[in-house]
Amino acid sequence: MKLSISQIKYVRSLHARKSRQKYHNFVVEGVKMCEEVLHQGDLEIELIATTQEWADANRSLLKMHEHRLYIVSTKELKRISFLTTPNQVMLVARQPEHQLPGHIADLTLYLDGLQDPGNLGTILRIADWFGIEWVFYSPDTVEVFNPKVVQASMGAFLRVKCMAAEFGDLKEAFPEIPIYGAVLEGDNVFKMILPTEAILVIGNESRGISPLLQQQLTHRAAIPQNSKGGAESLNAAVAAGILCATFRNPRVSGM
Description:
By secondary structure, this protein is α/β, with parallel strands linked by helices. It contains twelve helices and ten strands.
């Protein structure tokens, strides 16, 4: 099948957050990530746009989706692509919907007002690496299904459960869970005895954790700067990686 003009306009509209929210769909691009989505089989696929060459080489993978398959030229793929250099395949999938879990029995992340898609995608990769099941984020955080976040996550969005939530709702649902915030002025995280179950809050790239949320922290965790260091702060994703490694490594957290 070939994409109609209206379908091309529709796919291009998914560049915008309001369209992704309206249709509850999002775009995945690139051979590796599309193959991962199709192999996993958990997402509802609306359409697949691919070159004839890629389709011919992946008939077994596309067997269940032939009625959603659209063959396009490289020029047509470029028209609907989010990438500077379009790949051989892209697909539109339904956004998964999650409900708050009944309990938290592990390390969980909460992202407060992050705006950089690359940071969010990297944090999802970090969560995936450390086996963190849930990443919650404030409604004003860049959305998980932003194309740049999806690309930066390198498939982690498929394995980590992500959900927008007001922090107050989490606090009400899990009143006994300790809340650690990544702050500049806090206790040395390498000297803390860290619990297995906790919510770790990562704040906005420039402003940090919002004042209102800071009031709800039970622990303020800081990554100590070396005496020779001159940087004003750490990148949000870098800080998240260091803190997650510390929580996951009892030999470090027990120092």
